[in-house]
Amino acid sequence: MPHKNPDLAPITFELTLAIDPEDAFDAFTTGFGDWWPTDSHSISKKDCRGVELTPGVGGDIIERVKGKDDIRWGRVRSWHPGEHLSFTWHPGWNAGDFTLVEVSFDLNDFGRCVVRLEHKAWENVGDIAPALREGYLKGWEFAFGECFGNYLRQKR
Question: Which of 20, 87, 122, 140 has the fewest Cβ atoms within 10 angstroms?
């Protein structure tokens, strides 16, 4: 069913690779700091010491910053290794104004892993939602499509 407001519709990206869903899940989560493009996609840019995703429900996604306080990007809401995870997403903003990211890991009929990322709940951020969503179209295409995709290809 189409979203009532296309400016707030979920963003979806998919990668299909010959990799085991458990390995893809592990690469996405445990390897988060290895594949995430901190040079271009961090709050503190050159002062960014890295990002990490703490495993399990309630785990934080944190940007570590040289000489400053860490910046929370989100918190894990669901955790099903090899299948699905979801997390709030608010890098550098008020945690109450979060969007939601869901990532699923499935096998298709050809035995390949389909990793699907969906970014939604744009209505939570108010008037800036359409502009923010527009920026994330390119952002996820690069971070997830290219960076995570290349990371997965090197892993298998």
Answer: 20
The domain that holds 44 is classified in CATH as 3.30.530.20
pTM of the shown model: 0.95
Q: What is the DSSP string of 64-105?
A: EETTS--EEEEEEEEEETTTEEEEEE-TTS-GGG-EEEEEEE
Count CB-CB contacts under 10 A for residue 69. 8
pLDDT tens digit sequence for 4-25: 788 899 999 999 999 999 999 9
The sign of the dihedral angle between the CA atoms of 151, 143, 109, 85 is positive
> What's the rounded Cα separation, in Å, for the pair 134 and 154?
29
With beta carbons less than 8 A apart as the criterion, state whether 21 and 107 touch.
Answer: yes
* Domain enclosing residue 122, as ranges: 11-155
